[in-house]
Amino acid sequence: MYSKASRSTILVIGDVRNTVNQIRYQRVLALAEAYPLYVVTTSPLPAALREKVCEVHVVGRWLSMLRTCLRLAQRLAADGDLVVHTVYAPRPMVAGFLCRLLVQCRWIYDLYDHPSLTWSRSGGLRRLLKYGMWRLALSRMLYWADVWVIGMHPGILSHLPVPRRRCRLVLSGGPGIQELPVRETREPTNRQMVFCYAGPLEAQRGSRLIASWARSYDGPPGCLHLMGSEDYRAVDAIESVREEAFRRGLRIVRHGWIEHDKVLEILRSGNIGLCAIAPHVLNYRYSYPIKVVEYMSQGLVPVATDGQGVRTLIRHGETGFVARYGYESFSRAITEAISACQDRDRHKTLLSNMRRNVKHRSWSSLNRNLLLDIETALGTTI
Prior knowledge:
Strand content: 15-25%
Strand order of the largest sheet: 3-2-1-4-5-6-7
Helix content: 40-55%
Structural class: alpha/beta
């Protein structure tokens, strides 16, 4: 536990699910342990987090969030030092900017995703308007932030405006885990190979790529578990190959969104974890995929498509396998992973390397370091 600082912190954030390895969940947990924390959010907090914070304000549309943040900031600033900590999305960014400008508090901008997430799923005029809002207004507001927390791969800085000299940068270290590796070894088998995918099932997350691989599956009898919220286009892509995959020996099980404990239970039965992310989506390309770390912690050999954050976590053939975003490369990497899982000595070496890779990625230590870095940054922004 941390001894709480006297300064109050307002965290402006979106939906926080009851998923302990999610960065949003951990941000609330870390800040609540270090500061008197007031949360402005679009959805109620999980019960485990609600009891740790001072107040939760659930808001709706633009004006509701902005009005709530300003009133809360004015009240807390009257009692002493105040920091407003916001995430990457447009509404929280505007709220942080207005509090910084009108209340004279300090503003921390937390970039664990890139604002492109808000327009990458839109099309036509809506996409153009969102992109224009970022380029012409929101990105310029960042100039006034006192601290940037870079929760993604540092390469994302090349896509951001130049910060002012007084702004301090904090690198968060990427994703962590709460669970330790569950098995020292997992015996390879020629009877069935269990593949797992955990995360939103949508085109940007490689659903069509996974479907193409399943349609042409050529390996030992296998089962593919798909866990996460589902986009109807992704579901159509998967269902269109189900019968052909089954004829080739691959059974597909769609679980939809399920509780995190159930996800971990299924992962513990698996051999190979899939992480396919389309390279054209900026925020996913540069992020550290949380699921890669989670796969490693549960003893699954990860197969991921290429990206700067992915290369930071996976050394091809040593801690997993990396492929280009394309059917042939992805299928070839999975074939390599199957072969490695069926080779007792190589599989044992992979597991050892993966355990070593995630050994120091506990959320407790990452959060502790993040808070120390934030304190240092705030100490030099006065």
